[in-house]
């Protein structure tokens, strides 16, 4: 006999059936999403460092 039944607490309701996942949700949960996101951040960072904007932000020594 479980402690929930012993103290008269109602059992948890069964979980509702999950809706089917969209293609984007499946992609977001895959390792490819992490690889693509980190690659995009890396490429963006390199582009920013190489840009004239970075030259304007850095002090001229």
Automatic annotation (TrEMBL):
It holds the Pfam family Tom6. The chain crosses the membrane at residues 34-53. The keyword Transmembrane applies. Keywords: Membrane, Transmembrane, Transmembrane helix. InterPro entries: Tom6. This is Tom6p.
């Amino acid at each position: 006999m479980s402690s929930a039944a012993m103290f008269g607490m109602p059992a948890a309701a069964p979980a509702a059936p999950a809706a089917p996942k969209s293609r984007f949700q499946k992609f977001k949960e895959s390792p490819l999403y992490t690889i693509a996101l980190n690659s995009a951040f890396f490429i963006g960072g390199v582009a920013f460092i190489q840009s004239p904007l970075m030259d304007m932000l850095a002090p001229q020594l």
